[in-house]
Structure formats: structure tokens, C-alpha cells
Amino acid sequence: MATNASNTLYAALRTLPVQLPDQVTGGSVWYTVGAVVASLLVLEQLVYRTKKGHLPGPRWTIPIIGKFADSRSPTLEKYIESWKSGALSAVSVFNIFIVMSATNEYSRKIFNSPKYAEPCLVASAKQVLCPDNWVFLNGKAHVEYRRILNTLFTRKALSIYLQTQDAITRQHFARWLIESELSSKPGTLMNPIRDLNMVTSLRVFCGSHIPDHAIATITEKYWVITCALQLVNFPLAIPGTATYRAIQARKEAMVWLEAAAASSKRAMAEGKDVECLLDAWVMEINEARKQGKMDREFSDREMALVVLSFLFASQDAMSSGLIYFLQHLADHPDVLAKVREEQERVRGGDFERPTTLEMLDAMPYIKACVKETLRLRPPVTMVPYKATRPFPISEDYTVPKNTIIIPSLYPSVMDEEVYPEPEKFLPDRWLDPESPANANPQQYLVFGSGPHRCIGVEYVMMHMSVVGGVAACLLDWTHHVTPDSEKTQMIATIFPKDGCIVSFRPRKHD
Ligand code: HEM
């Protein structure tokens, strides 16, 4: 078993072919160096094989780099192959031992075992997001911080954000229509959706406490941060590296985010209306302190770091979700027709009326489409965790301490017993409360599970319903299908390999 790794290793070491000569001279230096290198390479293989135990995975690891080449250009297809190889499988990259789970049972066990494993962001994350960011908390400190942040996603708070989301979505659609008319060629959805999400997030989080030109700067710079936080990256912040550029971008963003927090505190003290997440938070803190339920302050920096963490957690996943959503609706005209029918009914034919929570409550069909799109193309296909101690994950395998252990989400949402015809976009599977999809909520791991489950679930459902719903009302769009439309590229999350090429026209109503 892997827990006996060190004993086995020492036993094996005693048998290594290392003989140091009495006098190290001339050619014998080379002999010694060669013997040491050879011993280290053998040792590397022994450590790998001992940790791996009986798990599927390559029997030998490529010296030093392991599966580095594969991890530089990850594809969903390669991951699907390794998930098929076993419920748990192992690889090594640069001597970092990695165990991946492919079943729902093991993935949920990892998510829900904070005693043994905790989230482990990529190596550069602490430098980019700052080591004192709340996202790096675990255990009791995390639970307490998260309890406060949960209050930012209540129905009351969401109804404030919704007005902003609806207004910004309409502004962007108006711009897309002008750009589409001016351009002779259809373009990909990647940048338009990223911009829409970034502006929406910054306005929802910071309201008017951040000027327009700062939103433009942060939106432009944020891509640099996304690139530095991909699964595999050179982690040293040396000028010229992605990590270095991301740190510079973060510093610039933090200046504006801290100023926004300070401005929100002033506005709330002056009795102004709550218009964004920062305002809602300031009011929440003031109220809790007044009632004696809280005895701490949140500094401008702490609040700015939370906004930064929300941007980091949401930007890429939300872009992936929305791009696939518009792609699926365009590829399934029957589904789009039903979405339009629901929109027309709920909005009473008035497409200019801003969306309200009550309207969304009356739109089960679009919510089913959102759930289905996130199931079929889950933006986050896996989440890296780290074993903080030997983790007895099954009766016959204990994950060694410090292993990167990755609960995979994709195989769960592709399980054909729970989701018959899993490769098809079938929103109706969510409409029957008795359907296997609804009867097995534990299978839907799109947002993770356990203490670190995504905090933004309701916000995501709302945002995707607004963008998809308003698009169905105001836009006609054509998806220009290419051989790469159904292939995926993995950035931090997944996207259509061709970026989803579309053209827009204003929708004509009868
Ligand atoms: C389609 C969009 C999104 C998807 C698919 C998604 C998915 C996920 C997943 C899989 C996790 C890891 C959960 C775990 O370890 O159990 C996560 C964590 C998180 N998400 Fe999301 N997310 C999305 C959007 C958002 C948004 C909009 C926000 C903020 C407003 C957000 C904030 C967070 C935060 C803060 C965490 C870490 C929570 C913690 O450690 O306590 N996410 N998300």
C-alpha cells in the first residue's frame, strides 16, 4: 500500500547499483556522476511505482518531466481516455504525483473530505491572487469567512444585481448588432462574451464605484491573469513570464478595487442606495455590528481581494457556459422556439421590460436549458485538490500525503444511467421532477460539492438565463458550424475549438 511507500523505498535503495570508488580521480569522476544520476533516475521510478501501487496509469514515468508534454496541450479527449482507464488512475508530472478520480463516488469523497484534502490552485495562484486572499483559507477560518460571503447571494441581493445584468446585456447586444452589420465576416463569440461578462461582473460587484475607463483597463488586462492561471504554467515571476505579467495586471486592478471598496463605504455612510455587491456587503457588516453579531471590520484590501477572487472564479467559467449556451440554442431551433415562446408569454410581448426575479421564477424552460448546457459542456471538468495527509480513499488504496488529487466532474455528468443519451442536448430531462436527472442531484457535480462548492451557483443560473433569454427576444443569430465546433479546447475551462463563429441580426417580431 502507498502508506508503506517510505519503507519500501529505503529497502529498494539498499539494492541500488551505487559504488563510490576509494579515490575519486579522472574517469572515475564521470563514473561517480553517472552512477549518482542513474541512481536518482531509478529512485524516481521506484517512488512513482510505490506511490502508484496497483492503480492504472503508465508503469514507468518519463524521467524528470513525466507527462509534462501532455499537460502542456491538454485535450478533453486525452482526459476521457484516462478516466476510462479506472475509477482512480495515476500519473506524474515533474515528479508531482497526481491521482485522478473518474467516478461520482470518489469525486464526491474528495470534495467532502476536508480532513484529508483541500483545494489546491495552480502554483502561480498565490502570487497572482495574493497569499492573504480568502480563497486560500481552509477549515474553520474558511467556514466563517464563507458564512459572511453567502449573505451576498441572497434573493434580495440577487434582485439588485439582476437590474445591472439586464441593462448591460442589452447594451452589449446593441453593440454586437452594429458590429455585425459593419463587418462582412462572422466572428467568434470568445471576445464579445468575455467583455460582456467582465463588464457585468465589475458593475455587479462594484457598481458606479469604479469609473468606465478603469473597467476598460481591467477588462483588457484580465486576460493576462487568466493565461497565468492555467493548469500548467511556469510559476516563477520573472519579467517576461505570464506569471509576472499577471502580477502587474493584478496590482493595477487592485488599486481600482480598493478604491471602489472605500467609495462604497462612504456612500453607505451617506445613506445612498445599495446598488452593487460591495454596497450590500457594507450594509450587511454595519447591520451585524449594530446587532452585536460581528466584532470585526473588513478593510478595503480584504474586500477588494474578495472581488478579485470572484472575478477569477467566475470569468472563465461563465464565458465558457454562455458561449456553449448560445451555440446549443442556435444548433437546436426547436429548443430556441420553446425558449422564445416562454419569453413572449412571461414578458407579455414587451421585450424592452427589464427582467425581474419574478419573471425568472416563471421561466422553468430556460432554466432547464441552462442546466442542460452546463451538464453537456461543464466549464470546469476537474478541480485540483491536495492530500494534506495519507487519505484512505478506498479499501485497497491510500493516497499518499502531498499528492495532487483531482476529482473529475465530467464523467459524472456523462453517466448514461442518470442522463440517458448523455451526448445529446435534451433540456426536457430537467422538467420532470421524477426524471433520473432530478432524482440524482448528487450526480450533477458542475459546481463541485462540499465546503468549497461554488458560491455563485444562483448568480450563474440568473446570469445565463438573462443573457440567453434577452438574446432569444432581441437577436437572431446563426452559428457557422465548422469541423472544430464539437471539438474542445481547454484553456482553464473548456471552449469550442473554433471559438463559436456566429453572425447576428436584429430579431424581427411578427
Ligand atoms: C458557469 C459558471 C461557474 C462554474 C461552472 C463554476 C464552478 C465552480 C467549481 C467547480 C468550483 C469548485 C468547487 C469545489 O471545490 O467543490 C467553484 C468554486 C468557486 N466559485 Fe464558481 N463557478 C462558476 C461561476 C462562479 C461565479 C459567477 C462566482 C462568483 C460570483 C463563483 C465563485 C466561486 C468561488 C468563490 C469558489 C470557491 C469557493 C470556496 O472555496 O469556498 N463561481 N466554482
UniProtKB/TrEMBL annotation:
Its cofactor is heme. SUPFAM superfamilies: Cytochrome P450 (SSF48264). Keywords: Heme, Iron, Metal-binding, Monooxygenase, Oxidoreductase. Its EC number is 1.14.19.41. GO terms for molecular function: C-22 sterol desaturase (NADPH) activity; heme binding; iron ion binding; monooxygenase activity. The keyword Heme applies. Belongs to the cytochrome P450 family. This is sterol 22-desaturase. It comes from Exidia glandulosa HHB12029.
